[in-house]
Amino acid sequence: MYLTREQQADYKRQGFLIVESFVDAGACDRLRVRAEALVHEFDPAEAISIFSTREQSRRADDYFLGSGDKIRFFFEENAFLPNGSLRHSKNRSINKIGHALHDLDPVFDKFSRTPELKQLSADLGIEQPLLLQSMYIFKQPKIGGEVTCHQDSTFIYTEPMSIAGLWFALEDATVENGCLWAIPGGHEIGLKSRWQRSQDGMHFEVFDSTPWPEERLVPLEVRKGTLILLSGLLPHKSLENKSAKSRHAYTLHMIGGNSDYPADNWLQRSTAMPLRGFE
What we know:
The protein is built from 6 helices and 13 strands.
């Protein structure tokens, strides 16, 4: 076992678990260097897609919806001037890269498929684990946007629910530079909505419209190399980064291969690129 029984109990009780020093500084730095190289190679003329959680319709452009089996780049909301030019350099304007880094890039593949992560999936009780999506998140200085309170299972739903989020701090994450906030035990609230594909595009099916109990949110300030495990039902968010410090992070989502992954989830793959586990 990688996780102790106490850690497993904490995860079940709180809906999240902080595992310090899960990866070393060198591994964090290699991901950062590779992400910077990918951004350098990216030509913004290919597509301009802005990531936002305030206006979900912005998620529904074809560039985003077709990114489940590709490596694509999404800009910060505040990256552009009124005339359409970038406020800062390209590498200071990208919000995130997604969503198949773990399958298409050898550096991210190596980071994402370690014996420790395979054991972790077993400790979490995820049967036949499959890596569904990956994101490199920059949380840029001064313009890093807010991610509003949400549950990951709203966007990547399985039946039965078998989703775990793995959030790796590639730099120190603090209140100052936009760390995660979570509601301890909030996963017991149940799923409040689903974001689904339909003939008319994307829409939310709302099961519970009551506001999030955000007064219960606590900051998850962590050091570089820390892993935060997140239940798919855990309500969490991050605030804007108004500081001069970036807050780079890498996230993975794994699901159980014995669960049903509906065709109306936004993230879909071509049959030529099926989901893979840890091998």
